Amino acid sequence: MRRFGWIALAALVVDQLTKLAARQLTAAVTLIPGVVGLRYAENTGMAFSLFSGRPWLLGLLSAALIVLGFAVLRRYRLGAVAQIAAMLMLGGAAGNMIDRLFIGYVVDMIEVLFIDFAIFNVADAALTVGCVLMAWSLLFRPKDWSEKHGNTEGDPV
Helices 80-102 and 122-140: crossing angle, nearest 10°? Predict the structure, then answer.
């Protein structure tokens, strides 16, 4: 997975830069009328504000899930789609984990205007796209998943 590590780094950097910019918003901004806009929000919970008020717990849970995910994925030789999916998920999870652990909430700013939906951020989008790609890979590209056998020392992750 090392060859696609730049995707995780890019997702993390873009996420953190957009969150920095979002902190400067003083009012909602419409980007595409009736479609999408920007509005600053602080989320102390997770998706749809579940478990609000427990950012440290959610930050530690994020870290544990990142480690667990890599422990599971190390058992496989992954194809390109699965590797890209994993890197998007890593970048997104790391972006929100950093917010939870260092500022106590996740900065959200992307607002869908044509439906009543939660405000989200770049990390959330990366996680969602990564999960969809991972599911697609599991369901429709089984050859992307071959289990490693024997000694895995020195195998790239």
Answer: 150
pLDDT digits (tens, 9 = 90+) for 109-139: 999 999 998 899 999 999 999 999 999 999 9
Strand partners for 38: 29, 110
Name residue 147's beta-bridge partners: 76
Instruction: Specify the residue for token string 């995707």.
Output: 7
Exposure class string for 112-145: b at 16+ Cβ within 10 A, else e: ebeeeeebbbbbbbbbebbeebbeebeeeeeebe
Mean pLDDT over residues 30-47, rounded? 92
For the record, the structure tokens of 73 come out as 């994925």
The enclosing H or E element of 106 equals: strand 106-112
User: Looking at the annotation, which residues are catalytic?
Assistant: 108, 124
Question: pTM for the full model?
Answer: 0.85
> CA-based diameter of the chain, in Å?
57
Token representation of residue 8 = 């995780």
Q: Where are the alpha helices (DSSP H) in the chain?
A: 5-22, 55-73, 80-102, 122-140
